[in-house]
Amino acid sequence: MWGDDMSDVIHELDTRRLLCPMPVIKTQNKVRTLQTGDQLRVISTDPGSLNDIPAWCRINGHEVLETGEQGHEVYVLLRVGEDNGALF
Amino acid sequence: MTEATQPIQRRAIALVSGGLDSMLAVKVMQEQGIEVEGVNFFTGFCVEGHTHAIRKKDKDKDKRNNALWVAEQLGIKMHIIDISEEYKDVVLNPKHGYGANLNPCLDCKIFMVNQATLMINKAREFAGDRGFDFIVTGEVIGQRPKSQRKETMPIISQESGADDRLLRPLCAKNLPATLPEREGWVNRDELFDFSGRNRKPQMALAKHFGLDDFAQPAGGCCFLTDESYSNKLADLWKARNERRYELDDIMLLKVGRHLRPKPHYKLIISREEGENRFLEGYRYMFTSITTVSCPGPLALVDGNFENEEELQQAAAIVARYSKGRVQDEVTLEIRQADGVARQVTVKPALPDDVPVAWNVG
Ligand code: SF4
Q: Can you give the residue ranges of the NFACT protein RNA binding domain (chain B) (predicted)?
């Protein structure tokens, strides 16, 4: 079960209750710790995250795999692009 | 024979607020072949966070994060940095003082350019040629009375540590040549000499670049330039007997009607659905009041009631802002932060029972 291939692992980031731009900042800081190809699901209660996190991904070269809403929460599933931005 | 050397691609970090000026500054650099990445600082006082905090789902799709949106329009990367903790010292102890309200604009600029300087220094150290050569801002001389004057420009350059690596493309021609100009990385002749509060040159340049959709912040880039907001912050410090704040405090000052019936407690009453939702998220931190017998606002109690009478008074005030304001009585629920709740039934306060002097802000 815990083979070498970790590509299916989905990292999770809880940004519930945080307001723009904090969910984006947290996402950015988390992505810096991940590798190209890693998947991250960000959960937020700020509906604006559905605009902002995908915009942030487009700008910085990450791929949005899925977005959605569940009750009061929204989520964005992304795949880390070539540059995780770790320089800063 | 020597190999032809490729000219080094010069790179700059631009402070991007989300407004037109920084957008133009980036564009001017791009036109000159400079590769630009943006940085946007989150201080906690940004207008941005506010509009987002209370925007309603779907209805306010256009309330976007301007910095991200600008980055997308310009095709640049954007780093959003949380400086809210370090920024407290700027707000609480500004060396150069405040502007018309509690806005420490000059110290703020110095602080932000300093942060950008630390970033480019770090990047130059770790990334060599992929690092950054200089910093760009959208500052214009004379645009803002306090921070953007001819005399303040060198102060920002020096005290931030950026020195001549700080370039202001929109007013560079009014200032001594900076390193990027002297080294020929950018052509000074193609920079600008904007000054004063007249926005026409910026508008013309925007048109030239084909930019027609941009944010135009009125007073400034943050809530500290807002008189009402500054009054609320001053009131908070007075009530607490110390100049101090947490991020949640300053977020809450952006939302709702703030009434202080007694020095030791304040009510934050929502005015519409979006604010309601926003305040909802804080009920685990504060005592809150909601109406039970009719639709009404959500109110947070910042402080403590000293006796039952004060609690009843607060309930009556909240009832006054509910749909039941003209009824003989309204039932409300008072819920403590830990979830323990009780109901009270009160006669709604009359307009005269809520003196204007209680309004904070
Ligand atoms: S308006 Fe606010 S963010 Fe802008 S320079 Fe002044 S203090 Fe800083």
A: 256-358
Chain A residue closest in CA terms to B282? A17
**Number of domains observed in the structure of chain A:** 1
Tell me if A52 and B76 make a contact (CB, 8 A cut-off).
no
Selected for mutation to probe chain B from A16, A51, A62, A73 (highest B CB count within 10 Å) is A51
Provide the whole-model pTM: 0.89
Residuewise pLDDT in 10s, chain B (361 residues): 455 677 889 999 999 988 899 999 999 999 999 999 999 999 999 876 555 555 554 444 456 788 898 999 999 999 999 999 999 999 999 999 999 999 999 999 999 999 999 999 998 888 777 789 999 999 999 887 667 788 899 999 999 999 999 999 999 999 999 999 999 999 999 999 999 888 899 999 999 999 888 776 545 678 999 999 999 999 999 999 999 999 999 999 999 999 999 999 999 999 998 889 889 989 999 999 999 999 999 999 999 999 999 999 999 999 999 999 999 999 999 999 999 999 999 999 999 999 999 999 8
Instruction: Residue A65: give its domain's CATH number.
Output: 3.30.110.40
Q: B157 C-alpha vs ligand 1 centroid, how far in Å?
A: 17
Containing structural domain, residue A41: 8-79
Which residue ranges does chain B devote to CATH 3.40.50.620? 3-223
ipTM above 0.90, yes or no: no
Q: Are strands B134-136 and B166-167 parallel, antiparallel or unpaired?
A: parallel
Contact by Cβ (8 Å): A54, A64:
yes
A20 tagged catalytic: yes
Instruction: Give a yes or no: residue A85 inside a domain.
Output: no
Does residue A50 lie within any of the structural domains? yes
Instruction: Say whether B65 and A20 touch across the interface (CB within 8 A).
Output: yes
Residue B290 CA to its chain's centroid (Å):
30
Closest CA to B189 of B208, B168, B173: B173
For A78, half-sphere exposure in the C-beta direction (CA atoms, 13 angstrom radius) is 31
Among chain A residues, CA nearest to B248: A18
Q: Of the listed A18, A20, A22, A34, which one is catalytic?
A: A20
In a domain, A71, yes or no: yes
Half-sphere exposure (CA, 13 Å, Cβ side) for B309? Answer: 3
Topology (CATH) of B3-223:
Rossmann fold (3.40.50)
Residue B359 DSSP class: B
